[in-house]
Amino acid sequence: MAAASAGSVLLVAAERNRWHRLPSLLLSPRRWMWKQRTVKYATATGRTITKVLIANRGEIACRVMRTARKMGVQSVAVYSDADRNSMHVDMADEAYSIGPAPSQQSYLSMEKIIQVAKLSAAQAIHPGYGFLSENTEFAELCKQEGIIFIGPPSSAIRDMGIKSTSKSIMAAAGVPVIEGYHGEDQSDQCLREHAGRIGYPVMVKAVRGGGGKGMRIVRSENEFQEQLDSARREAKKSFNDDAMLVEKFVDTPRHVEVQVFGDHHGNAVYLFERDCSVQRRHQKIIEEAPGPGIEPEVRRKLGEAAVRAAKAVNYVGAGTVEFIMDSKHNFYFMEMNTRLQVEHPVTEMITGTDLVEWQLRIAAGEKIPLSQEEISLQGHAFEARIYAEDPNNNFMPGAGPLVHLSTPRADLTTRIETGVRQGDEVSVHYDPMIAKLVVWAADRQAALTKLKHSLRQYNIVGLHTNIDFLLSLSSHPAFEAGNVHTDFIPQHHRELFPARKATAKESVCQAALGLILQEKAVTDAFKLQVQDRFSPFASSSGRRLNICYTRNMTLRDGKSNVDIAVTYNHDGSYNMQFDDQTFHVLGELCSEGDCTYLKSSVSGVARKAKLIILENRIHLFSMEGTVQIDIPVPKYLSSVTSEGAQGGTKAPMTGTIEKVFVKPGDKVKAGDSLLVMIAMKMEHTIKAPRDGTIKKIFYKEGSQANRHAPLVEFEEEESNKRDSE
Q: What is the pLDDT of residues 373-401, one digit of tens each?
């Protein structure tokens, strides 16, 4: 990270070659489009953009910096204490600390960010997405301070940020809207009456919502109050505004959004649609462009409606108009995101554009680089969001170190959008997204094949991720057929979360071989160190300390122990005997780059897998899938169970106690809500694991609990007392 010198400031970019690079050129006879033009990064007032501050972190900060560097524009990073050693800090030309880890004291501190912009002499601020990207006050503050805000006018942010206002504007502009209540009366009774009038199921949404926050589906009047209260709490926490709207919920809809761009000269264009239907917790998990099965005429109508929406609020810069689409391809305005979207790379891949470059140019006063007729759609692209989360535990977000991280190789048709490296930590303070894997191919089927192949090459050790779930999802026949909708995961839950099967014995043999060969490698290294070939500790032949040729080994597959009798053969191979089967196994370890691979033959079938042994767990990664086999730990070394001796609940992660519903002496049933935690930018309801009586609450509202800390303790039941006596 080097500080930029005053002499390196670029006032006016010289004559530059500009091109719209189309990945499909490898498969298409179409030629690259080259344009020669002089580019001046200047506003209407003659000011230039030579340095941009990115008021964000992680992958989007890195993404903006890459384009800025390509354009000859210097980048300024800001970082919290938690991000001091992060990737975006290292990438920037300059970086400034802005406070403690909590975002309210750092990335959401408008005054600190403006101060850094002035100190660094940055002419513009790019807000990325999230944080201050759709904050009207921040856009206004930038304007007052004479700093270019790379985004739309504050009026557009305000009008589109209030869902009730945006619906009225869209209806007046001729954009289809869905039935709902967007009024000022926010009483429980009023909202309940309108929900009944509209007809269940309904959606209650935070008026200033976004990203799935403050949003709940209510399927009956009985659950209305509970869901409304939960949505309000989350909205208040996320947006400091708990005003809600109610609208008709369309069953099994598609979530289709259109990328739009406007400039200061009154021009607006659309760059086709993205389908973001497959979601969990109302948040996108996989996106694609264009939308599967959408006919050209519907695509045109979607685009034209989105442009009308943009022009209705005099939109400038990158924006996304989101629609709900029913099974007959009727579509209705949902909301407009007045920023760059997380999933913008799939649009870039099918249009051959750099949308961040467009943002910088338009913010500097240029016209949109292409007319509507010049924007063409080629091929198909997918984006898979790779998260630190546990899909088998209701997608519970996680945090922790990326002990091992290896990815597919990036090229013209594969992008790895990330802000972390091996050894970095996914922080509990921010969103748990690790990366975005983006692939392109000539058609949807080819792109899907490439996506699945690339996911198998994305290997992470150290915390739970959703990679295996993304593989299961992208391999589902309904997804392969393009039959996507927002209820996809619940509807196909059984197939997407099948009951765990025992690991194939051939794979257990691989794991055992990997463990044996690693032990041998350690022994050989020790032998070289001590240079005592007669030491019993320097033997890995199977006769160490005069033990016999056969070794009994116990591994753990899920919750089941697997006993293996391993016979060491004189030729260096092994016989591995289970209760009912014997396998002849041989192999070797080899290094490729920073990774160790296991080359093996199991009863004549050759295999190759990446091998990582960490914290008593053997990981095997291959094109056939991922295998995890545990090495059992003696009981006297094992950690305590997740529940105390008297039973209770523990914090799934570090977070703040938002609401406590119970008190000592209360009797609860299994599944009753005990308290609400805010962690990883989400609200988590902690429920009773069993029937019982509350003995103790360990935390008050507003206090912070660390991961695995006990939250609630239950009275010991009489039967348990008798059992222990």
A: 999 999 999 999 999 999 998 898 888 89
How far is the C-alpha of 725 from the C-alpha of 591, rounded, in Å? 56
Task: Write the CA distances from 272 to 378, 394, 485, integer angstroms.
Answer: 11, 33, 19
Can you tell me which residue has the tokens 């869209």? 170
Q: In which band, very low, low, confident or very high, does the pLDDT at 48 lie, cut at 50, 70 and 90?
A: confident
Return the minimum-mean-pLDDT range out of 60-64, 544-548, 697-701, 702-706: 544-548
pLDDT higher than threshold 50 for residue 354: yes
Higher pLDDT, 588 or 17: 588
pTM to 2 decimals?
A: 0.79
CA distance 11 to 42: 9
CA distance 543 to 530: 19
Answer whether 687's CB lies under 8 Å from 396's CB.
no
Percent share of the chain, pLDDT over 70: 86
Confidence check: pLDDT of 601 > 50:
yes
Q: For helices 224-239 and 188-198, give the axis angle rounded to 10 degrees.
A: 120
The answer regarding whether domain 179-248 maps to CATH 3.40.50.300 reads no
- Report the CATH number of the 6-150 domain: 3.40.50.20
Write down the domain spans for the chain: 6-150, 179-248, 254-496, 505-630, 648-724
Looking at domain 648-724, its CATH class is mainly beta
> Closest Cα partner for 166 from 335, 338, 339?
335
What is the architecture, at CATH level 2, of domain 254-496? 2-Layer Sandwich (3.30)
Written as six digits, the tokens of 186 are 């926010």
Residues 6+ apart with CB under 8 A from 341: 129, 257, 259, 274, 318, 320
Confidence of residue 652 (pLDDT cuts 50, 70, 90): confident
Domain at 505-630, CATH class: alpha beta
Give the strand pairing for 389-390 and 317-325: unpaired
Residue 339 appears among annotated catalytic residues: yes
How is residue 411 annotated by DSSP? B
Q: Nearest 5°: phi and psi at 549?
A: -70, -20
Q: Which of 282, 267, 171, 279 is nearest to 230 (CA)?
A: 282
Over its C-alpha atoms, the chain yields an Rg (Å, rounded) of: 28
Residues 647, 652, 657, 659, Cα dihedral to 10°: -70
- 637 touches 649 (CB < 8 A): no
Catalytic residue among 63, 158, 254, 339: 339
Angle (CA) 702-686-245 rounded to 5° is 75
Size of the chain, expressed as the number of residues it contains: 725
